[in-house]
Amino acid sequence: METYRIIYASTAARPFGLAEFDRLLLQARIYNYSEGIGGLLLRAGSQFLEVLEGPEAAVAELYARIAADPRHQAVRTIDAAAAGGPLFLPARLGFAEVELTALDRLIAYLDPAHRRALFPQGYDEQEIIADLLLEFVELHCPQVLAQPGDQATSRPQRSQYA
């Protein structure tokens, strides 16, 4: 099965209380698992970046629901494409709180308007996006990749571009 990946950024329409956010995250994890969608949700205050990975139809349907959800505003697609394989565990939604400056920097690097100037020509865009995401996770929230009993060799590896 081919992996389809959508990366988007958004802002919460209103502040979430801790209990409300925990409930939302649990519901998202249950739904994503049932649809075979994995990925990563990063939050810095009211700013979000999410990576959704899985079957194209399921990922596209979930993203359409997210984009229409009134709890989000300023939802913008950063990337949507077939990927060589999942970066994160299939059917598992990783989550991490990160610093706002770090998240803003990641979003700027991934932004389609900037990445053509930043990425060398002739390189595989999807591999570079994957490398940027993995490097960010390794630096800012490595616990997202670590699993009990996990071997380092079973984790996603960066490409030859890294």
From TrEMBL:
Q: Specify the domain of life of the species encoding this protein.
A: Bacteria
Q: Which residues form the signal peptide?
A: none
Q: PROSITE patterns from the xrefs?
A: BLUF
SUPFAM superfamilies, per database record: Acylphosphatase/BLUF domain-like
Query: Which Pfam families does this UniProt record tie to the protein?
Result: BLUF
Q: Which residues form the BLUF domain?
A: 3-94
The protein in question is named BLUF domain-containing protein
Q: What species was this sequence derived from?
A: Hymenobacter glaciei
Q: Identify the taxonomic lineage of the organism of origin.
A: Bacteria, Pseudomonadati, Bacteroidota, Cytophagia, Cytophagales
